[in-house]
């Protein structure tokens, strides 16, 4: 039980603790509230002409969202984000899951080395690797293509897929696999009929995580798409109009970008926490 | 059905030898138990037979065919794991027919097998449940059913009852015996529980540190332990050991021990004549020491010893009494509850001379051979 | 020897072949990154020969020195700040109370919001001359007192631009530190605290003498991971700090605005070097600390 223990604090400290909780909740939810507030603000609540910006819009309106969802270009952007994220999921799962299977179930020689390599990929700065990878894509014709973005995002996602996948496969008792062998199932049948069905929750989490990672990734998309408007994903679109668009529109795009991430993050919360702790075990 | 032969099987992990040049023959249809303390290599041996561990040294024959390098999928064996290893995402029925499905059995054969095994193991009505929805005893029966439908040459059972509570275990033992009688399969059963081994098996291979100490019928292992280890491991409460010396005089042959002079039965007395003066380790089972009120009731092979009671443990229908002979060693024995014994009481008990075991303290072997010769 | 190695690798491949595509993919890209970084940073548009021209030029370049200084400061301030906020949240959650699960989920929200969105929100909030923060501090929302008479151009000042970037970074990443520290807290046997209490240790003593030493492994993890994160930060200063640059945004500046990939690669190399050096130094320091504490 992860959360069954507690630090015994004195009764007179309870008050301090409650104040702390309230402060912390405000600190976290305040900005979220403001973002949503901006997205439903009318233009008069933003350009107030020197008056303080109201904490609740004068005329709450969904006009920013309506504007976005009647804009063909915005649909195209969302579609691009979706295509890139989905392809990243498929590609990184196809090569990541078998690797996770091996690392999670067999103590092959050099396992530690492989794990260390995977962690080091994760810790390597994006802003550093993006330069050589962009140059490489320029030389190979992958620059300014979705394929390039997908390949780069898969590189970022693979360590997560492998780590979450290892967890999923490790939790399946070895007995089940061996029982299947004894009953005549070969390695492929065992993988498909026993291991995969049991690993599905964990692997689904890895897939969702990968999708989100690609969905809100900015640096690689920015460098590889390199200003080619018709390939813009949501993050690039948001960055591209940050100086030109009114703040309520920026906020509305931000909300559109965040909502799927927040929802799905809580669906895979358990695995996300596991992923963070796995990464933290050196 | 087939017989199973192991020839000088050896297993090493690095420098530790887990199984050391082990030979074993199991007849077709026999129920053999591999019994031993944890770490004696019994599970490793079972897994080698199943093909889950490689065999680098020695040979494995099933039905006369060498199976050394056959992968587990191709061996005609079935195995029940200690954890039962029921596939948690499949219903009871899917679990049972998994092996048949894999081997692409025809639907009518599957049906026929199901209609045979489901009543045999009392699984009616559970077919559509998931493993987590049934009890431990039912899980154990599903695991057994799943193994039986494959019609294996050899059935391997790895401590299948260790996860059951005491009451369930009793019924499960009876079930297993019944099933074995019914299907007549060759069964290799691994356990560290001597009661399971004694009640079910036709023969027991008693393992210690990767070697077979004794391979015999259960009764014979109890009545005639080949080594000190066998005497120690089998029997509950544990056997008493005292040091002694063989003593041969005209009318007075027997063993002189720390707890007094012990007579032997006549046959054995005659055989130890040549061993006068030899140091021995004397094993006396608590069941071979008894208390009688009238000296007249004793047999002529019985010897009396005097002791002071130190502790009485209530075992329900009887008591385990722990006594000490003077300053000598502790002796445990069983008393029926008719007599109330209290600590500090001084009493005289009798040792049944026909049932004491003499071991060579150096070789740790029984001084007598099985047929009573030396 | 060679043949046995060959046999072993064949055995290995037989066993572990499903691992190979992913391994090739990851190592392939690592090699590409390494090779390109080296060839780019050790050459110039005109000179192909290996030269350290880029590096010598960088160190005499004022904007590079400024960025390096900024990044060091960013890391030195940001890492402890993330540790403290994480610890604060973890301590709040290290209590059993009604709705704890919900509160924990709320504390995880910043992690779920894309960094770009957080940056964009701060961009809006710290706007000049309007913007919530300016209005707040000039007394636009009574009863909150007025601290400023004039609105501040936050993003136009080096100090404040860095400050907002740091704020965004810490806000977004505090759940990560919180989770690691909470896991550390939960692995301490609570009976230890009770035992200390029966021996008469005060609340502060219990924290200092029992919790901190036992938390040292998790604290070390947080510090090591967060330092790396701080060094490589890009998105917050990119959106919020404009021309006041960290190493990350300097790479982007050289690559995108100046169009000099060689210089960008050289900065990137230096960043990796900095991360390596600081990680090793931190690791050694933490090791020494651990030894000192356990000896005492």
Walk me through what this model shows.
The complex is a heterotrimer of chains A (282), B (374) and C (296). Chain A is mostly helical. Helices cover 73% and strands 0% of the residues of chain A. Chain A has twelve helices and no strands. The model of chain A is unreliable at 1-7 and 278-282 (pLDDT under 50). Chain B has helices at residues 42-50, 92-102, 107-120, 136-148, 166-183, 194-200, 218-223, 228-233, 266-271; strands at 4-13, 16-26, 31-35, 57-62, 65-66, 77-80, 154-158, 186-191, 203-208, 211-216, 240-247, 254-257, 260-262, 279-284, 289-290, 302-314, 318-324, 330-336, 346-352, 357-359. Chain B has a six-stranded mixed beta sheet with strand order 6-7-8-3-9-10, with helices on both faces. In chain B, strands 13-12-11-14-20 form a five-stranded antiparallel beta sheet. In chain B, helix 2 (92-102) packs parallel to helix 4. Chain C is an all-alpha fold and 296 residues long. In chain C, 76% of the residues lie in helices and 0% in strands. Chain C has helices at 2-16, 20-41, 53-59, 62-93, 100-107, 109-112, 115-125, 132-137, 158-186, 190-198, 203-231, 235-240, 247-258, 261-295. Chain C starts with a helix and ends with a helix. The mean pLDDT of chain C is 86. Chains A and B meet through helix 7 and helix 8 of A and strand 6 and helix 2 of B.
Provide mean pLDDT of chain B, rounded. Answer: 88
What global shape of chain B is seen?
elongated
Strand content of chain C: under 5%
Unreliable segments of chain C (pLDDT under 50, ≥5 consecutive)?
none
Number of helices of chain B: 9
Inertia-based shape of chain C: globular
Oligomer: heterotrimer
Helical content class of chain C: over 70%
CA radius of gyration of chain C is 24 Å
- Element-level helix/strand string of chain B: EEEHEEEHHHEHEHEEHHEEEHEEEEEEE
Helix content of chain B: 10-25%
* Ends distance of chain C: 50 Å
Helix/strand-derived class of chain C? mainly alpha
Largest sheet of chain B: 6 strands, mixed
């Amino acid at each position: 039980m992860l959360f069954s223990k507690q630090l015994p604090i004195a009764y007179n400290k309870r008050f301090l603790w409650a104040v702390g909780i309230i402060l912390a909740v405000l600190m976290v939810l305040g900005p979220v509230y403001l973002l949503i507030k901006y997205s439903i603000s009318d233009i008069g609540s933003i350009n107030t002409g020197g008056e303080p910006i109201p904490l609740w819009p004068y005329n709450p309106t969904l006009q920013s969202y309506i504007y976005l969802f009647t804009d063909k270009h915005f649909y195209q952007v969302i579609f691009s984000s979706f295509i890139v994220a989905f392809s990243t999921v498929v590609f990184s799962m196809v090569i990541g899951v078998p690797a996770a299977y091996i690392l999670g179930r067999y103590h092959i020689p050099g396992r530690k080395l492989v794990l260390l390599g995977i962690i080091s990929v994760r810790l390597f700065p994006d802003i550093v690797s993006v330069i050589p990878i962009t140059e490489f894509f320029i030389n190979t014709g992958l620059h300014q293509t979705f394929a390039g973005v997908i390949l780069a995002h898969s590189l970022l996602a693979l360590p997560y897929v492998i780590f979450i996948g290892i967890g999923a496969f490790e939790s399946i008792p070895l007995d089940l696999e061996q029982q299947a062998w004894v009953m005549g199932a070969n390695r492929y049948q065992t993988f498909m009929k026993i291991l995969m069905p049991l690993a599905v929750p964990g692997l689904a989490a890895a897939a969702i995580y990968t999708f989100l990672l690609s969905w809100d990734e900015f640096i690689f998309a920015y460098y590889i798409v390199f200003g080619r408007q018709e390939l813009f994903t949501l993050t690039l679109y948001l960055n591209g109009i940050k100086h030109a668009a009114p703040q309520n529109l920026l906020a509305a795009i931000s909300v559109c970008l965040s909502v799927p991430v927040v929802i799905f993050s809580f669906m895979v919360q358990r695995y996300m926490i596991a992923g963070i702790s796995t990464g933290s075990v050196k | 059905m087939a017989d199973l032969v192991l020839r000088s099987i050896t297993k090493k992990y690095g420098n530790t030898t887990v199984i050391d040049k082990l030979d074993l023959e199991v007849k077709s249809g026999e129920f053999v138990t591999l019994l031993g303390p944890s770490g004696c290599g019994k599970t490793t041996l079972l897994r080698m037979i199943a093909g889950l561990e490689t065999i680098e040294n020695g040979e494995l024959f099933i039905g006369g065919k060498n199976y050394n390098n056959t992968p587990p999928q191709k061996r005609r064996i079935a195995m029940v794991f200690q954890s039962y290893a029921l596939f948690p995402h499949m219903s009871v029925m899917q679990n049972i027919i998994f092996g048949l499905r894999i081997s692409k059995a025809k639907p009518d054969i599957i049906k026929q097998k199901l209609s045979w095994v489901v009543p045999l193991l009392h699984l009616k009505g559970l077919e559509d449940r998931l493993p987590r929805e049934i009890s431990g005893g039912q899980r154990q029966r599903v695991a057994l059913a799943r193994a039986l439908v494959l019609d294996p040459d050899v059935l391997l059972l790895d401590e299948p009852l260790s996860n059951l509570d005491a009451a369930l275990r009793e019924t499960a033992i009876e079930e297993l015996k019944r099933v074995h009688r019914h299907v007549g399969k060759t069964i290799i059963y691994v356990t560290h529980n001597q009661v399971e081994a004694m009640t079910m098996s036709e023969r027991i291979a008693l393992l210690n540190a990767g070697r077979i100490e004794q391979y015999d019928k259960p009764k014979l292992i109890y009545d005639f332990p080949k080594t000190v280890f066998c005497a120690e491991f089998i029997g509950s409460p544990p056997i008493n050991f005292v040091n002694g010396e063989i003593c041969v005089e005209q009318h007075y042959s027997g063993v002189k021990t720390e707890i007094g002079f012990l007579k032997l039965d006549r046959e054995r007395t005659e055989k130890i004549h040549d061993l006068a003066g030899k140091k021995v380790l004397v094993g006396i089972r608590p069941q071979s020491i008894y208390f009688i009120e009238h000296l007249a009731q004793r047999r002529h092979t019985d010897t009396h010893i005097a002791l002071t009671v130190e502790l009485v443990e209530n075992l329900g229908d009887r008591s385990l009494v722990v006594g000490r002979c003077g300053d000598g060693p502790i002796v445990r024995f069983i008393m029926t509850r008719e007599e109330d014994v209290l600590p500090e009481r001084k009493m005289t008990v009798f040792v049944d001379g026909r049932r004491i075991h003499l071991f060579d303290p150096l070789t740790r072997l029984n001084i007598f051979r099985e047929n009573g010769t030396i | 020897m060679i043949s046995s190695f060959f046999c072993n690798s064949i055995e290995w491949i037989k066993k572990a072949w499903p691992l190979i595509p992913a391994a090739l993919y990851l190592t392939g890209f690592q090699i590409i990154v390494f090779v390109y970084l080296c060839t780019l940073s050790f050459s110039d548009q005109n000179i192909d020969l290996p030269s350290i021209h880029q590096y010598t030029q960088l160190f005499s370049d004022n904007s590079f020195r400024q960025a390096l200084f900024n990044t060091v400061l960013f890391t030195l301030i940001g890492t402890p700040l993330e540790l403290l906020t994480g610890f604060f949240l973890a301590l709040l959650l290290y209590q059993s109370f009604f709705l704890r699960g919900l509160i924990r989920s709320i504390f995880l929200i910043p992690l779920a919001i894309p960094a770009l969105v957080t940056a964009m929100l701060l961009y809006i909030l710290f706007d000049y001359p309007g913007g919530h923060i300016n209005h707040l501090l000039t007394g636009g929302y009574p009863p909150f007192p007025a601290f400023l008479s004039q609105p501040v151009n936050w993003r136009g000042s080096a100090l404040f631009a860095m400050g907002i970037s740091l704020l965004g970074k810490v806000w977004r990443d505090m759940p990560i530190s919180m989770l690691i520290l909470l896991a550390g807290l939960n692995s301490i046997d609570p009976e230890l605290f009770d035992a200390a209490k029966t021996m008469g240790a005060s609340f502060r003593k219990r924290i200092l003498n029992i919790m901190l030493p036992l938390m040292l492994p998790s604290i070390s993890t947080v510090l090591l991971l967060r330092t790396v994160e701080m060094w490589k930060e890009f998105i917050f200063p990119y959106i919020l700090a404009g021309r006041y640059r960290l190493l990350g945004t300097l790479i982007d500046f050289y690559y995108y605005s100046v169009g000099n990939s060689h210089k960008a690669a050289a900065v990137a190399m230096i960043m990796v070097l900095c991360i390596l050096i600081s990680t090793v130094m931190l690791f050694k320091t933490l090791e020494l600390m651990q030894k000192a504490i356990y000896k005492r």
